[in-house]
């Protein structure tokens, strides 16, 4: 979602929302956020997002709270975005590192992310499903003798 002063990025997993303040400056380093402090600007057709000010609890592959992430979002086809990122954190890595991949557009609604922690019924559901599958594979003969 985009407004004149912000871009909002909705993450399907855990339903995190990042608010990117456009053409702004980072908050003071004393202001730390779980998802960091994101500012953005346009370089031609590419949205550039720089994120700093992570908390000391935001760990990405051993990173420190001083990690900086620079992302680039470029539409490369009518239904595709090229996503590129560079991660810098001298306390963790000897040099910045980058990756990229293409995101295909989807007309599907976001997936409902839900945690099954402490859902003890799931074990019984899955066990029952495996019994039914085995029964079907054996032609229904397994449960006739029980």
Model description:
A hairpin with an 8-residue loop joins β6 and β7. The protein has a seven-stranded mixed sheet with strand order 1-2-3-4-5-6-7, with no helix packed on it. 8% of the residues are buried. The mean pLDDT is 88. It starts with 5 loop residues before the first strand and ends in a 9-residue tail after the last helix. The chain has 146 residues and is mainly beta. The chain is elongated, with a radius of gyration of 23 Å. The longest helix has 17 residues. It folds into two domains: 106 residues, no CATH class; 32 residues, no CATH class. It is built from one helix and seven strands.
Write the layout of secondary structure elements.
Blueprint: E1 6-10, E2 17-22, E3 37-43, E4 46-52, E5 68-77, E6 80-88, E7 97-104, H1 121-137
Write out key terms for the chains shown.
mainly beta; single chain; 7-stranded mixed beta sheet; 36% strand; 146 residues; 1 helix
